[in-house]
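Q: Joint fold for the lines below.
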Amino acid sequence: MRWLLKAESWFMKIGVLALQGDFAEHISMLKKIGVDTVEVRLPKHLDGLDGLIMPGGESTTIGKLAVAYGLMEPLREFGKIHAVWGTCAGAIFLSRDIGRDQPLLGLMDIKVRRNAFGRQIDSFETDLEIDELMKATGTEHPYHAVFIRAPIIESVSGNAKVLSALEDGRIVAAQQGHLLATSFHPELTGDTRFHEYFISLAS
Amino acid sequence: METKTGTWTEKKGLAQMLKGGVIMDVVNAEQAKIAEDAGACAVMALERVPADIRADGGVARMSDPDMILKIIDAVSIPVMAKCRIGHFVEAQILESIGVDYIDESEVLTPADEEHHILKHNFKVPFVCGCRNIGEALRRIGEGAAMIRTKGEAGTGDVVEAVRHARSVIGSIKHLQVMDDEELMTFAKNNGAPYELVKEVKELGRLPVVNFAAGGVATPADAALMMQLGVDGVFVGSGIFKSGDPAKRAAAIVKSVTHYQDASILAEVSKNLGEAMVGRNAAQMPESEKLAVRGW
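A: Joint structure:
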């Protein structure tokens, strides 16, 4: 478990937005590091949570369901105080601007472009050197990242900072205080370092 | 840094992103927009929905690439398209125009009555239908990165979808309590690759995402399939053959998310207008059943 004290995570309860997408994959990663989880489909499910993960999936579907069940404002309020992490569709949903009309939480000062690498045959896997993550977890090996019809973070502003970029400079992870956005899917790898990093933001 | 495309993780991964969602059959860009606006997680582009394929008869083939491209241009969500069983050239064409997933489908007229496409040869991922665990694992063995239970397409009758989902999920449960000594015989009896049988026993589920298809026509049907244990649903004729497609599509999307909440299911089931007319699958002659196609 490296730097993360297991005892710390015992008291944590992390929600995973379960409107659509690979929420079960996030839940199994959190279980691996001993964190208690809750599936969030309605505003009342946010009560008592220490943080929230918004999974990969289709951002249009997730946005519409969040609007239909009155989750937009409760999620915005939650994100003001608690840690929130969006992967892929979740990162899109967290952002302020995507250059098209669909429901967004606007919690992070990032501009995102959907399907930025092309269609599914252009989806790829690659290794990323993420200094912050390696430092925080006391590890030295790169993070193997899985991109699926992935968005990119076109720009960060305000208090948002770049956490990771590809060799050509395109931003694929950003952080703004206790808010985290990744355009790839740590939940599809066996590597729990990103989930551990997120837990450190939630505690 | 080394970059890889078309990997097994990538292929399986896109299906994982579709979980908890509804994939809708659409025949033109206008319907694709309606589906996207209703919250579909992907669309299946085809020239005729299964109910019309049944009514029209004749040979059903891959759709016109131009029509598929128009749908690709119209929506931001993934676009799937169907090729005939065994027709690997149709699959090559669909891959080249950039569809996100290929459905090697029994709804179209099979091009090969003995062999399916060797799907490992492609970078684009494939979904295939199954009626039971053996068929599911044979398709995965050939490289299918997503499975759907077949049901009986174009009927609006959910009975076959239930039968096939119960069969697959029941077999997985059965495997959980088997001794390892029994697995080879299970593989033999079900015509399933042994290594995949072992993997299913270890995982307690199929190694790829499993949706339900074929006969889902109402929000209650969709929630029924979810409660039986599938990862999401395909709705073919059930939406655009109904009285109010946009409303029914949105209701089915909600029913898949809130599949365990009967009060929400009651709410979304109200005033949807006419469901598709439907056809009783039990009274259908064997020769008209699409699900028997696949080997």
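Q: Anything notable?
A: Strands of chain B lie at 3-5, 22-26, 42-45, 79-84, 101-105, 126-130, 146-149, 209-212, 233-235. Chain B has 13 helices and nine strands.
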